[in-house]
Amino acid sequence: MPPNRRNTGESTVSVLTAPPDCPICRDQHWLQGTDGLVRCQCQAEEDRQRHSEVLWRISELPEPLRDASLKAFDVRHRGNRIVRDAVVGFLSGSMTTPWLAIVGGFETGKSYLAGCVVRGSVEQGHYALYRYVPNMLRRIKEGFSNGTSAEEYRRLEEPEVLVLDDFGTEEWSPWVVETLSELFEHRYERDKRTFVTTNLSLEKWPEQIGRIKRRIEDSAKCTIVVNNAPRYRGKKG
Ligand SMILES: [Zn+2]
């Protein structure tokens, strides 16, 4: 007797249950493995999409940068080509250092590239977090009044890829220096991938942040790329 038929005793009738979409788990989505329940392969694509949605949300990449794409980055100027290639190396893992610092003038596309790094990392399934440094410091500071400061700071230590956009525009108060030094130190010691953009050419970094500078200048840990391109004019064409 075929499995979708049963004998009622009087006659054989068809039971109107559709066959399962997934013959492996019979649409239960979980299978009994040797160490407990395991996800069925039929859920892989849906799980991947759900995971990707979560990664996008927790990246906190601002909306205007979500469409950032290396393919659309204007590389007519050699400086832009060099930084683009560095970002490609950072994302592909062909770059040997865990950190990449982009030094460039005003409006040379640094934030756009920061968006590309977050997007590329998320698409690879990594937890990446975007932070515009002046806002990041303000959020930690504001957190002192409602007790969220430590949590806000800790979130910077966790991501697989931390993107710090526009470092170096702040006033170097002892608190700012200490906070940033501690963050850089934490990620430095653990080889945690970090992408930094700054307007501030290295020779202008003030003495107070010498400790951060020494970390950035450690060529075993950080690749520094200087973009001498003029103001960025957006997409190709
Ligand atoms: Zn299944």
Could you walk me through the main structural features you see in this protein, from its secondary elements to its overall organization?
This protein is α/β, with parallel strands linked by helices. It folds into two domains: 23-59, no CATH class; 62-227, P-loop containing nucleotide triphosphate hydrolases (Rossmann fold). It is 38% helix and 19% strand. It is built from seven helices and nine strands, in the order E-E-E-E-H-H-E-H-E-H-H-E-H-E-H-E. A hairpin with a 4-residue loop joins strand 1 (5-7) and strand 2. The mean pLDDT is 90. The structure holds zinc ion. Zinc ion binds at residues 22, 24-25, 29, 40, 42. Residues 22, 24-25, 29, 40, 42 line the site of zinc ion.
Which helices and strands occur, and which strands form pairs?
Elements: E1 5-7, E2 12-14, E3 30-33, E4 36-39, H1 44-59, H2 78-92, E5 99-104, H3 110-123, E6 128-132, H4 133-146, H5 149-157, E7 161-167, H6 174-189, E8 193-198, H7 210-216, E9 222-227
Parallel strand pairs: 5-8, 5-9, 6-7, 7-8
Antiparallel strand pairs: 1-2, 3-4
Helix pairs in contact: 1-3, 2-3, 4-5
The structure holds zinc ion.
Zinc ion binds at residues 22, 24-25, 29, 40, 42.
